[in-house]
Amino acid sequence: MLPPFIIEQIRKREEEDLRRRTVEQPRLEIPIEYPAIPPARRTERDIEDEEDRRRGVIVVDLI
Questions:
Q1: pLDDT tens digits, residue range 13-59?
Q2: Which of 2, 26, 34, 43 pairs with 53 at a CA distance of 20 to 30 A?
Q3: What is the DSSP string of 48-60?
Q4: What is the Cα 23 distance to its own chain's centre?
């Protein structure tokens, strides 16, 4: 059986390795452009849709 301080050191090294791998993980951002709605024709629903877009909410209707 290993002494507790060695077990703790191994655990810390494993956590640091995991943290390093997740930070260095390459990321791909998908550029999504939404068409602008002219201000004269904006309705309350359009404003809500725009707020949803800014938050990154996407609604998928699976009917």
A1: 999 998 888 777 777 788 877 777 666 666 677 767 777 667 666 67
A2: 26
A3: HHHHHHHHT----
A4: 13
CB contact at 8 A, 53 and 34: yes
Residue range of the domain that includes 46: 38-63
Please count the structural domains in the chain. Answer: 1
Contact predicate 18/12, CB 8 Å: no
Length of the chain: 63
Identify whether 50 is part of a domain. Answer: yes
Does residue 19 fall inside a structural domain?
no
Structure confidence at residue 56 (pLDDT): 63
